[in-house]
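Forum: Protein Structure Q&A
Topic: Joint prediction for protein chains with partners

I've read a bunch of threads here and the consensus seems to be that you should model interacting components together rather than docking separate models afterwards. I'd like to see that in practice. Below is the full input, 412 residues plus whatever partners are listed. Could one of the regulars post the assembled result?
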Amino acid sequence: MNATPIIKSPHLILASASKSRSRILSAVGISHEIIPANIDEARVKVKLIETDSDPATVAKTLAEMKAQKISYLHSNSLVIGADQVLYYDDEMLNKPINIQDAKEHLNKLSGRNHTLLVSTCIFLNGNILWQFTDKANMEMRLLSESYIDWYINEIKEQVCETLGAYRIEGLGAQLFSSIEGDFFSILGLPLLPLLKELRNHGVISA
Amino acid sequence: MNATPIIKSPHLILASASKSRSRILSAVGISHEIIPANIDEARVKVKLIETDSDPATVAKTLAEMKAQKISYLHSNSLVIGADQVLYYDDEMLNKPINIQDAKEHLNKLSGRNHTLLVSTCIFLNGNILWQFTDKANMEMRLLSESYIDWYINEIKEQVCETLGAYRIEGLGAQLFSSIEGDFFSILGLPLLPLLKELRNHGVISA
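Posted by a regular:
Agreed with the consensus. Here's the joint model:
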């Protein structure tokens, strides 16, 4: 996790408060500044859903809104935006707001498949340079109430850090019978396509 | 990484010296004892290849040999064995023995696809209970000599910890243009199928 930064130029900003996204970039030696966009995501999501936007449009729009807002405020910096959307059937789940909410999330996801969409983009001076959306199919085991209680008691407030109330890189892997998709995308950032784009722009060494 | 162990019974042994495999088990709360089998893997591999064994047979045989050896020595313990094989065309690569060897590995893998096979099994009292083999397709970017030198200088002796001389969970992700396969399998252990089997045997809570 302590690789020498291989950023060449220019300044790179991650317009996201996600610790997981920042950890992914740091692990591959990409130094970056974290400047969360602090937009009212829940409100934007409601509006998008009211206008019949599909989950991919929601993820893409939110990622772009975050990156664009920060990009306008920081000229000549490349700004990475990203957003994840979790859905099954007609329902989308937002990040749990507390432990009780996380418990309800796990009860909803238990014994069924859900989809995790991740969208990422790069902005420069308010203009979009690149956008990419990836998808993972997640199959959660049928979990008993007592198992969910045990799980939440183990990971505690970390249960509120992800949309689905799981930490797939830790104990959360225990919740799943099958996972199909890119691990980095599940953690919040489609890393390999993003690295390719940063190389294309000469931001990191090739 | 500090989840409470959820092992119920019996004693679980990992017959592998791989730090990565032990880390994966610990991260999902599986307490285990590490007892490497210390068999002469290179010699066994040569013999298997001489008898025209395919890569999957090599991985499966080595995983089983390790688990069986430890299983005979530790009765009534479940013993996990595992082995990885890296190959492309007709060539298999063993773990680099030193920095120079790692450099040759990366030169061979640069700009081409290779396959990572991982085989795992569970033994009890010398008998096999379960076996599973998984496969990942890895596409490495075309790397310059100077990039390989820079990379090896960054991760140093860690470059000798994996078959392909990369640490995919860290800076090694920078080497790839595409990865298709389960992340845990690439790290050395097909985790979800293994957890399912441990649950089926009542070893961990369901």
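The interface with chain A takes residues 1, 3-4, 6, 27-29, 141, 144, 147, 150, 154-155, 169-171, 173-174, 176-179, 182-184, 191-192, 195-196, 204-206 of chain B (CB under 8 Å).
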